[in-house]
Amino acid sequence: MSSHPTLDAVCAHGLPGAPELEGAGSWDWDQLLADALDERAVAIVASVVAHQGWQLSCEHHSSLNSAHESVMQACLRLERATLEVVERLEGVGIEYRLLKGPAVAHLDYPDPAWRSFGDVDVLVRAGDYDATVRTLEAVGAHRRSAEVRPGFDRRFGKGVCMVRPDGVQIDVHRTLASGPFGHTIDLDALFEGDDAVGFGGRGFPVLTREHRFLHACVHAALGDVAPRIVALRDVAQFLLTTDLDLDQAIVDARAWRLSSVVAAAVTTTWDRFGLEATPVSIWAHGYRGGGFERRALAAYQGPHRSYARQMIAGVPAIPGTFAKAAYVRSLLVVNADYARSHDGGSLRRGVRALRSRRRVDGTR
Amino acid sequence: MSGALARPSRAGEHALVRSSEVLWRVGAFGIVLLGRRTPDPLTIAGPGPQLWEVLRIARTEAEIVDEFVASFDADPRVIRADVHPVLVRLVELGLVEATG
Predict the structure, then answer these.
(1) Which residues 6+ apart lie within 8 Å of B63 measured at CB?
(2) Residue from A186, A171, A147 nearest A311 by CA
């Protein structure tokens, strides 16, 4: 049950099969604007209000427009930072794909002013990962958190958040998720296709629409305990308003063992927005994944969600005995800086659980 | 470049066009623009989005004024007084380029 029902209704507006919006004149707009700020959904709310031509009071109109202007200014700064980052990467021959925010805003929404974002996300190949980090460090960026062990991120991690001196955060991704689902995605396939997004007078390579959709599902289902409404709107946006090749997306999801992630994202989206049932929502509500998918998904959900739990749940997804052993060894001998700064309590509990499991099943 | 805008002669005016490198968003607040070298985003409220749309292709200031006069059915002197300083600022910030 959502705690922001009016915000949910507004954020679903314009989607085929969304409930009719009624009574906008009697809404508590102070609360709605506060909820929109809390959920980082100001851009959608402002765009829907403008699209609908709703007449707000001067005070509410001014507050909403001022907030929208502010988040759009932030997005432009991030797009300029994106230009600077990719020019650095291109300068040293690093192949990349832009992820999430700017790509989805420009390519999958009716206007980029509908979709705000808060950082720069780039995907690089595992072989370029260390060079990417060094390239960003050379222009003053620093890691926001320590690595589990030297070399862990390049081999097993989702990636790292680099922070520039001006505060802009650059998420360098090796894969699209931490934990087990990060290991099942075909990383080479993410670099296939020639989709591109254009802004600032040039183009940038991005994931195909089908892979952008799968990434949106990963973000919606695995990104937070309570999914953010913008992540859910992304899922609905792809499914209901774009020419997404859903069959291809489902084939890739199955190959990458992400079907339960897609089903969870779609189910949550449809439930939260009260959308009319469609074939994909009926499939999602009825989907029951196998043992691996159920156990893996559980590591991201519920009150016991933790990064450590996701890492431990990743053990079965690591391909090959030697790699599996190296992964387990990395988790058992954690960098002290990492343990201090990252998820310390649950990590210690997780390591104890892993040691105990190793004693039981003989994993080395 | 702003000097080009001060010329009174229509024939002598440079055509103005958006810089291809500019980042921008339109909303009910107006339009917000950011160039590669501008320190901060610039917001133009009111007819800012329409001005930006007009600047999609190269136009002289006189042509821009004519277009706004037709759209708003207003006194050309008033329109010019409003548009000129905005164009000067856009050129100064590198958000709009003089061509030809």
Answers:
(1) none
(2) A147
What is the per-residue pLDDT for A337? 66
Chain A: closest CA distance from residue B77 (Å): 30
CA–CA distance, B14 with A268 (Å, rounded to integer): 56
Q: In whole angstroms, give the CA distance from residue A130 to residue A138.
A: 12
User: Could you tell me which residues are beta bridge partners of residue B33?
Assistant: B24, B42
Q: Which of B19, B29, B32 sits opposite A76 (nearest CB)?
A: B32
Nearest to A289 by CA among A269, A259, A268: A259
User: pTM, whole model, 2 decimals?
Assistant: 0.87
The distance between the two most distant Cα atoms of chain A, rounded to a whole number of Å, is 68
Q: Which of A52, A62, A72, A85 best probes binding to B when mutated, by most B CB atoms within 10 angstroms?
A: A72
SS3 call for B18:
strand
Which residues 98-137 in chain A show a CB within 8 A of chain B? 111-113
What is the complex's ipTM, to 2 decimals? 0.88
